[in-house]
């Protein structure tokens, strides 16, 4: 983009543009464009907005599916009840009171609690009890297939990115008001530019509104998950889903070791 000094130099040129080098001819034409900096920023944003929305959409949809699976999985809840029963049996042996529930972060500790045999963990004991009483529960992960590949993005991060896109679109709208021709003497190119910009803004407003609704659905579903499992409302989804994903992986390993 020409600097103010460049613009002053080119605009003071009195000769024929054809006498200039092709680069200088280009720069001369650039200097004639009003609000050039804002237009270039605008074009860059318009180019990047749909890409950003396309990148976010599958991540948000995946989080929605994860939450729906977790909300509806009865087998996972039944496995948690087994864990609570085993934990309370250990509490009773240790002279402690029975617990009414436990944090899901405890799932990551099951493979770490070992018995007299160092290779036998509390997770192995859980698998044994499930195979003994309700072997069908060992397949609970079939109800939670979305946990096999949890992306790194957290719901808080995704929600923040949607908010950033809203602000960027608002900046585009403000910029359009700034560069919109103030007189009826606008050139055909000016009029065409502003018309295409208006059409793009309307399209992006619709696309972003739909993405925002999906984001709200994602947050509501996750909030319901936290209530269901008694977790604090400020718990990051990355942590919660990470605990469950890790538990599923370790559970499958223990199943292979208990029932080779």
Structure, described:
The protein is mainly alpha-helical and 260 residues long. Helix content is 67%, strand content 0%. The chain contains 8 helices and no strands.
**Which percent range fits the helix content?**
55-70%
Mean pLDDT value = 91
Q: Could you tell me the radius of gyration in angstroms? A: 30 Å
Name the helix and strand elements from N-terminus to C-terminus, one letter apiece. HHHHHHHH
Low-confidence stretches: none
- Which structural class is indicated by helix and strand composition? mainly alpha
The CA-CA distance between the termini, in Å, is 68 Å
| Largest sheet: number of strands, sense, barrel closure | none
- Using DSSP, what is the number of strands? 0
Number of helices: 8
Strand fraction equals: under 5%
Shape: elongated
Short structural description:
The protein has helices spanning 4-11, 22-31, 36-72, 74-93, 122-133, 155-179, 188-228, 237-258. It is mainly α and 260 residues long.
Topology:
Layout (H helix, E strand, L loop, with lengths): L3 H8 L10 H10 L4 H37 L1 H20 L28 H12 L21 H25 L8 H41 L8 H22 L2
Features:
FH2_Formin_sf; FH2_Formin; elongated; single chain; 260 residues; 8 helices; mainly alpha
């Amino acid at each position: 983009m020409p600097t103010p000094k460049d613009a002053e130099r080119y605009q003071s040129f009195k000769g024929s543009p054809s006498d200039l080098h092709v680069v200088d001819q280009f720069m001369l034409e650039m200097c004639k464009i009003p609000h050039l900096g804002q237009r270039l920023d605008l074009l860059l944003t318009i180019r990047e907005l749909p890409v950003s929305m396309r990148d976010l959409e599958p991540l948000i949809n995946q989080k929605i599916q994860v939450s729906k699976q977790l909300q509806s999985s009865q087998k996972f809840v039944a496995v948690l009840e087994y864990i609570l029963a085993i934990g309370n049996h250990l509490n009773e042996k240790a002279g402690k009171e029975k617990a009414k529930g436990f944090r899901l972060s405890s799932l990551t500790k099951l493979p770490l609690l070992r018995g007299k045999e160092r290779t036998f963990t509390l997770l192995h004991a859980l698998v044994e009890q499930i195979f003994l009483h309700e072997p069908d529960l060992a397949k609970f992960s079939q109800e939670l297939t979305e946990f096999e590949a949890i992306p790194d993005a957290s719901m808080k991060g995704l929600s923040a990115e949607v908010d950033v896109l809203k602000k960027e679109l608002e900046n585009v709208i403000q910029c359009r008001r700034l560069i919109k021709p103030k007189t009826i003497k606008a050139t055909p190119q000016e009029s065409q530019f502003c018309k295409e910009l208006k059409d793009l803004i309307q399209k992006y407003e619709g696309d972003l509104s739909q993405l925002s609704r999906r984001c709200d659905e994602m947050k509501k579903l996750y909030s319901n998950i936290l209530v269901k499992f008694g977790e604090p409302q400020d718990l990051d989804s990355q942590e919660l889903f990470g605990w469950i994903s890790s538990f599923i992986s370790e559970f499958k390993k223990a199943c292979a070791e208990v029932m080779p």
